[in-house]
Design goal:
Elements lengths: L8 H8 L3 E3 L11 H6 L4 E9 L2 E10 L7 H75 L5 E3 L5 E4 L1 H7 L10 H8 L6 H7 L1
Antiparallel strand pairs: 1-2, 2-3, 4-5
């Protein structure tokens, strides 16, 4: 009689990931519950693990009240069935991972579609704003050109933003001065003024 390990046969199979065939449990007591099992009339057993990846999903556990019931052929058949179940379990996990990935891809595609729609809306809004700004600028230029006064518009950085043809004519300004800073333009027109210093004080 072999000393008990303190574990059940099923637990041993799971921990060792190996099948167990015992033709006569009463003659080879190895596990804690074996005395009870023999007392209940269980004399032979066959336990095969279902190994899936790095783990064990469960066992096939066959028990008989007669000794010498299970053979090596039974063991081979049970192992083959367990391997088939394990393969099916792996396929299930692969399919589940695939389904999860497809769901993520679908969700991401939906997010990208929404972002694309939003971007198109923003582009359309910007185009509309630019068109309105262009209309306003054309209207402003038309208004400035229609007046009889010479008009010069200078930005915060002292660069000339806009002036009408009347201003150019009044001060006989050459084209190369447009787009330059107002100081250069002022330098050019000063000689044409009656009182340049008084003009500068008004700026």
């Amino acid at each position: 009689m072999v000393a008990s390990t303190g574990r059940s046969a099923s637990l041993w199979v799971i921990q060792n990931r190996q099948p167990l065939l015992r033709k006569n449990i009463s003659g080879e007591l190895r596990f804690e519950p074996d005395d009870r099992r023999v007392a209940e009339g269980m004399l032979s057993d066959l336990i095969v693990p279902i190994v899936v990846g790095d783990g064990v999903a469960g066992n096939f556990n066959f028990t008989s009240r007669a000794p010498d019931i299970y053979t090596e052929e039974h063991l081979e058949t049970a192992v083959a069935v367990a391997d088939g179940v394990a393969a099916a379990a792996r396929l299930f996990e692969i399919q589940r991972s695939k389904d999860s990935l497809e769901e993520q891809v679908t969700a991401r595609a939906s997010e990208l579609e929404q972002a694309n729609l939003k971007l198109k809306e923003e582009i359309a809004q910007r185009a509309q704003v630019e068109e309105e700004l262009g209309d306003n600028e054309r209207l402003l230029r038309s208004t400035i050109e229609a007046t009889g006064d010479g008009i010069l518009v200078v930005g915060a950085n002292d660069r000339v933003i806009l002036c009408n043809d009347r201003f150019k004519t009044l001060w006989q300004l050459p084209d190369h001065l447009f787009g330059s800073d107002s100081e250069k333009m002022l330098t050019f027109v000063k000689p044409q003024m009656k009182d340049p210093e008084a003009f500068e004080r008004r700026l």
